[in-house]
From TrEMBL:
SUPFAM superfamilies: Cadherin-like. It comes from Pipra filicauda. InterPro entries: Cadherin, Cadherin-like_dom, Cadherin-like_sf, Cadherin_CS, Cadherin_Y-type_LIR, Catenin-bd_sf. PANTHER family: CADHERIN-23, CADHERIN-6. This is Cadherin-6. Signal peptide: none annotated. One of its GO terms (molecular function) is calcium ion binding. GO terms for cellular component: adherens junction; catenin complex. Residues 8-88, 89-197, 198-312, 313-417, 417-527 form the Cadherin domain. The chain crosses the membrane at residues 544-565.
Amino acid sequence: MMHEILHSDQDKGDGSLKYILSGDGAGDLFIINENTGDIQATKRLDREEKPVYILRAQAVNRKTGRPVEPESEFIIKIHDINDNEPMFTKDVYNASIPEMSDVGTFVVQVTATDADDPTYGNSAKVVYSILQGQPYFSVESETGIIKTALLNMDRENREQYQVVIQAKDMGGQMGGLSGTTTVNITLTDVNDNPPRFPQSTYQFRAPESMPLDSPVGRIKANDADMDENAEIEYSITEGDGYDMFGITTDKDTQEGIITVKKALDFENKNLYILKVEAANTHVDPRFLYLGPFKDSATVRIQVEDVDEPPVFSRPAYIMEVKEDVPINSVIGTVTAQDPDAPRNPVKYSVDRHTDMDRVFNINSGNGSIFTSKPLDRETLLWHNITVIAAEINNPKQSSRVPVFIKVLDVNDNAPEFAMFYETFVCENAKAEQLIQTLSAVDKDDSYNGHQFSFSLAPEAASSSNFTLQDNRDNTAGIFTRKTRYNRHEASTYFLPVVISDNDYPIQSSTETVTIRVCACDHRGKMLSCNAEALVHPTGLSTGALIAILLCIIILLVTVVLFAALRRQRKKEPLIISKEDIRDNIVSYNDEGGGEEDTQAFDIGTLRNPEAIDDNKLRRDIVPETLFIPRRTATARDNTDVRDFINQRLKENDTDPTAPPYDSLATYAYEGNGSVAESLSSLESVTTDGDQDYDYLSDWGPRFKKLADMYGSMDSDKDS
């Protein structure tokens, strides 16, 4: 506890003066006795918080408050004591070093700080020491640097180390304060361990039917290292199966996978001995003194026998046969045998899916292929069939081989015209005039090229009106023999031409050239021939003519149907206005036949209304709308037609069941006439002059149809 006394020379001890304190911490951390001037600290002072305080004190008259002397300033310095222990910058340190490092290899540096005054005594002087981690590591006392202290620390033996470091002040002397920290040290891997096979010999079994690249087995060499330092590459260094097997590395498991490179054959060799080597891919030269970083082992592979299908002597067979060979002629032989030790007998057959026409057959015992049908090179040059060889004791064991049979050509086809020749000769043709050039083709094959000869048939050579000249280039020309021709004497000539080849045996054919006699102009252009049409190569075929004829018939039927539909659409009711739906007119579309027509209407019904049948309709036409007849009172026998109609008119006007819209009641009686005169067309035939119906257009929309009908009649008459 700090205690200071402030005293003024003016203080006589009578209490007339009062002491006042101001500055850092005045009234809080420091207080003053206003009567005596004693200054005291109210709490413990910490140098690490504030090492210096500046205070000001003054004596004043208690009554007047006026200072009796100038203000005094004084500085309070806090002296340090060792009250803070060293503190490390981290609670836990993590570090790593490679395994097998030399002694004194730097690991990590730790740092501790002391809050005490480093300029006052040894309170802030820190010294480092190791509490845990010996004899593997050491620490420099002044710098805090941790180093290795043991040679050849091996990660494979121990990977993690925990070191405890102490920092102590007062220079490490007794009574100093201390702090500790933990350092976790990990040894990283280096390639200091070579791969090692756990056993010197491995044995595997492989069936001889194993496909190529199939795995036979796996081997693995152990490596105590990790990651890339443990990567291994396997190889076959020697052995009698060096070229029969291969080995690859599984990157995930670091195993060596032995695979088949060539087909195995138990009958040929049933045991293979290999030497396999495993070597690290990343070798550290610093540790080569530990020995070679590779190891080897022996692998024995036993080939197992399986029942194999027969094996053909060739992968494919090619045979040739002339197209004129007789049926059942042998064209070649295929051979297959059972590769297994028992050498089971083999049976041959032809896959009929490859020889649907059964052109060939095979001897099931010796494999000889022979023909069963005639051959024709011009129809099919190559026959590709498949032969099956199966064991007799086990037919499921079978194999196939393709056989390609080429049919060789024989001169068995005569040459013929390259096209159908039909030409013409002009009546005014001159002698020795070329009218047609002929060419020929031959279906047979010729190694040296075809050579055709042309000549007229013997029966036409002397009597023909034309001559034939062989051009010696597989063409020939037809020439006129005389000057003029008359189509009325002979309109058509048929010229037989003999075409021969030069192969053996010689083949020839007789072809006919049709020559028509036609009228031509002076330039030789054809004008006309006989009545029979001259068919040119560019003419239409029969199929094309039939197609054109069918199109014309379909077009005519379409036009007729269209005209019929148009005529049917013209039959419309008299009134077609959609605006007025009240009118209900029964239209029969029939003008009637006058008084002579007894079928259309019976005038006697007007005289005898009782004869009306409720369900009787007109017999000659079908009405568009049916009305339910209404019963009316019976008229007297002597009733006049006019009275009858008036009676019916009155009944309709007073009928409560009449429809609430305009309707037309027909009584077959015209009456005395109307102001509009008669609209009937019956009287119009008795007049000599033409009627003018233009006034119908003035009667409104209800008579528009009549105006259009009769107006059109007038226009027709004018036209």
